[in-house]
Each structure stands twice: as structure tokens, then as C-alpha cells.
Design brief:
By secondary structure, the protein is α+β, with helices and mostly antiparallel strands. It has a single domain, classed as Class II aldolase/adducin N-terminal domain (L-fuculose-1-phosphate Aldolase). Helix content is about 35%, strand content about 10%. Strands 3-2-1-4-7-6-5 form a seven-stranded mixed beta sheet, with helices on both faces. Strand 6 and strand 7 (about 195-200) form a beta hairpin. Helix 1 runs parallel beside helix 5 (about 205-225) and helix 1 crosses helix 7. The longest helix has 24 residues, at about 205-225. The structure holds zinc ion (ZN).
């Protein structure tokens, strides 16, 4: 069986290694508290919508310092609060004063932000319905309009192509660069026997795309079980439909955010 793997792992990469200095990088500057709140809520939404379990992470680029980004400390995303946010530079070094534990796979985020100026937010997950598509030769296709971004194509990153047998984790810059090359200019990249990465020009859209990648995977499996050819969205249909989804992302975000805030209030009441 042949996997639809990207053939880009031998490509050169423009960004050179930036040596980490002895001193920690400085913060990109203060941001509105709502940036941290939305990041925590987005993490909780991904957990509630079956994108995250105890693992997985969401990040957002610093709104005024593009060489910095935010994510939570290493923790279960369903427990995230605005007080758990850490700031990192594009080498995945934490900014000065940060001592909390960090995600092993934070390099996924820093390398993608470095290579893709259009990306403002990233989700890395082990979204369960998506994982099977990373180990079979059947490519993921856009089964419905809400997942239109998938019609542009979904490459699969096989870490073994460049790094041999590993623990499968993208735990350093070299592996993250290889993943970033495989992602290319797409919005989704599968990771063989691991999970996926989803990118977007806003945090709200990254969360929505991660949720609808998971939903699309379930729907594609159902469509496949019905048999016969699958009339998925064409690439141009995907572009047209995605413009509508981008404009309308506020609707699912407001719903999911309200539900997340309600759950947070209920948890707080139980803790009292
Ligand atoms: Zn992972």
C-alpha cells in the first residue's frame, strides 16, 4: 500500500539555524488579556469537540510582535486558563522570567510561524478520527462545505522518511522544519501514526478548522462505507466555499465560547 506522502523532505529550507543566546529572549510586549482568555478558551473548545484529549496544543502569534507566540504551559488543554499562557520566540525559547514546563512539540509552532507569515494560529492534535487517514493511501478530501479548506489538499508527513525510526514526536527544530516543508502552503497536514497540524489566519479559524477536520474525517469514513466514487468538493469549489466559512467563523466561535464559559462556571461552582 502506498501512502500519499509529500515528496518535499529533500527540499532545502531557507531559514538558517538561529543560535539560542545565553540569555532568554525578551517579551514582544504586553497584550490585551482577551488574547490569553481566547487562547485558553480555544484550548478548552478543542478538548470539548474531540480534537484534544489530555494532549494537543493551540497557539496564537503575538498580535504586535510577529517573532513571538503564545501557548499554554505543558498541561491538559481542557484545564487551560488565561494564567497558564507562556510566551516564546521563534526558536521556541521561553521569554525572560518563564520557568514553567513547556510542550515537547512546541517546535511545530515556532517553525511554522517562521516559514508562514500568513499563519496567526496553529493547532496540533491527535484528533482521533483524523489519525487513520495518516496511515492509509486514501487521501483526506473535503466531504462537505464547512471543511472546504481541505479541498486544497492534505499532505501527510512521515517522520521516518528523514529521521528513521523515532518516538514519532516532533520534538526538535529539524523535525519541525521537515513537517513545515510538508505542510507547504496548505491549511492541514497529517502526521503518520501521530496526528495532524492545522493552521489559519486567526485563532477562531484555527479552532474551527481543527474541529471540522475531525468532523470531515468521520464523514469521509461514512461516505467510503456507502461505496462508489466520492463527489467531494473540487479545489475551486473549496476556495469559493472557504471564503464564506472565513467570513462566518464568528458564529461557531461564539457558540463554542459560550459553552466553554458555562462549563468553566460550573467547574468553579463545584470547586467552591
Ligand atoms: Zn503530537
Amino acid at each position: 500500500m502506498r501512502l500519499h506522502l509529500c515528496n518535499c523532505f529533500n527540499a532545502t529550507f531557507a531559514a538558517a539555524d538561529s543560535p539560542s543566546g545565553a540569555s532568554a529572549p525578551q517579551s514582544g510586549g504586553p497584550v490585551e488579556r482577551s488574547v490569553f482568555e481566547d487562547l485558553a478558551i480555544g484550548s478548552r473548545i478543542c478538548a470539548a469537540e474531540n480534537v484534544f484529549d489530555a494532549f494537543g496544543h493551540l497557539s496564537v502569534r503575538h498580535p504586535t510582535a510577529p517573532d513571538r507566540f503564545f501557548m499554554t504551559k505543558s498541561m491538559a488543554p481542557a484545564l487551560a486558563t488565561a494564567d497558564d499562557i507562556v510566551e516564546l520566540d521563534l526558536e521556541s525559547n521561553p521569554c525572560a522570567g518563564e520557568t514553567r514546563p513547556l510542550f515537547l512539540e512546541r517546535f511545530i509552532h515556532s517553525e511554522i510561524y517562521k516559514a508562514r507569515p500568513d499563519v496567526q494560529s496553529i493547532v496540533h492534535s491527535h484528533s482521533p478520527s483524523v489519525v487513520p487517514f495518516g496511515v492509509v493511501g486514501n487521501p483526506m478530501r473535503a466531504i462537505f462545505h464547512t471543511a472546504a479548506f481541505i479541498a486544497a489538499g492534505v499532505p501527510t508527513f512521515d517522520i521516518s522518511q528523514e529521521f528513521g525510526e523515532t518516538d514519532m514526536l516532533v520534538g526538535n527544530r529539524d523535525k519541525a522544519r521537515a513537517l513545515t516543508r510538508c505542510l507547504g502552503d496548505k491549511s492541514v497536514c497529517l502526521m503518520r501514526a501521530h496526528g495532524s497540524v492545522v493552521v489559519a489566519p486567526s485563532l477562531q479559524l484555527a479552532v474551527a478548522r481543527a474541529v471540522y477536520t475531525e468532523v470531515n474525517a468521520k464523514l469521509q469514513l461514512q461516505a467510503t462505507m456507502l461505496g462508489g466514487p466520492i463527489a467531494a468538493l473540487s479545489e475551486s469549489e473549496g476556495r469559493i466555499a472557504d471564503a464564506v466559512n472565513i467570513a462566518g467563523v464568528g458564529r461557531p466561535w461564539e457558540l463554542w465560547k459560550r459553552q466553554a464559559l458555562r462549563r468553566m462556571r460550573e467547574e468553579a461552582e463545584l470547586d467552591d
